[in-house]
Amino acid sequence: MFFRRSTRQPAPQQVQGEQAVSASTSMPALELESVSVFTELPEGGHRRILKDVSLRFTAKRTAVLGLNGSGKSTLLGLFNGLTHPDEGIVRVNGVDTLDAPSRGSTGARGHSQGAFEGVGMLFAQPEAQLIMPTVAEDIDLSLRRAAAVEGSALSGEQRLERIRELLRERGLEHLENQSVFTLSGGEKQLVALTSVLAARPQILLLDEPTTLLDLRNRARLLKHLESLDQMLVLSTHDLDLAASCDEAVIIHDGRLLAQGDAEQLVQQYRTWCAEGFPNEGATEDLDSAGGAHGR
Question: Residue ranges per domain, the chain?
Fold first, then answer.
């Protein structure tokens, strides 16, 4: 099972010395403007993980394609505060994320509290985000966090009713009081998705969500994702899944190579994987020990 594609299918736009821009003229929900991300090298200096990337995500479902180590996870992390840009601007719903504190921070970095509040993320390994002992408690934590952000309050009885409703929607009601540590891989991923959705995000980021799933649980997860109204941005090595999205971007060696119609870009990606990517083997950018220059 894959996504049903929308009728809007912009032509792919390869980047050769220019940045790719989505064909849509609507207000972008997610945007990068000349963004670079650096990592420190053991011998000193820095290496760029993302390199002067500019793009807009406006489609309902966008696939992020790239080889291992290309920068896909780093790119997704920019949109929920896990990664900060060393250069350039990241905007979520028009808000510059450097004006918003990262999750769990004191808020001292900036002024806007809302940049990441509408963004949820599902990791490839759900163990990274299932932190409470039982399924119900993990979902309850998300409900309480969402209520705190919204300045609202739900009683314990109201939260329990909502937990059971969310579990029923995904056929997981039998797991309500089960330990998260005893769940199967597919159950963990579905429970993690349920916890993320409990906070009612407008945008859902998915980092290789089907990588560790067998065919049955993969189908279950995709069925639930298909039913969502949220904007989805997912990194994946599953080219059939990617082709069923509305748009795709191709990242290679930290650079944006192309953005456009998913079906067409999947074909381009297959060709590049077989025959070589543009500028393959180019000298890696290394910065002196002085480091990256932030804004």
Answer: 10-114+246-295
Six-digit token string for 241: 């899944």
Give the mean model confidence (pLDDT) for residues 1-10. Answer: 56
Q: Give the side-chain half-sphere CA count within 13 A for 6.
A: 14
Parallel, antiparallel, or unpaired for β 231-235 and 203-207?
parallel
pTM: 0.82
The string over 20-56, giving b where at least 16 C-beta atoms fall within 10 Å of a residue's C-beta and e elsewhere, is bebbeeeebbbbbbebbbbeeeeeeebbbbbbbbbbb
Q: Across the chain, where does the E strand assignment appear?
A: 13-14, 30-40, 46-57, 61-65, 87-92, 95-96, 119-122, 203-207, 231-235, 247-252, 255-261, 286-287
The label of the residue with tokens 């649980």 reads: 217
Which CATH superfamily is 10-114+246-295 part of?
Answer: P-loop containing nucleotide triphosphate hydrolases (3.40.50.300)
Query: Does the pLDDT of residue 1 top 90, yes or no?
Result: no
**Model confidence over 92-120: pLDDT tens digits?**
988 888 875 544 443 334 434 467 878 99
Number of neighbours of residue 168 by Cβ within 10 angstroms: 11
What per-residue confidence (pLDDT) applies to 281?
53
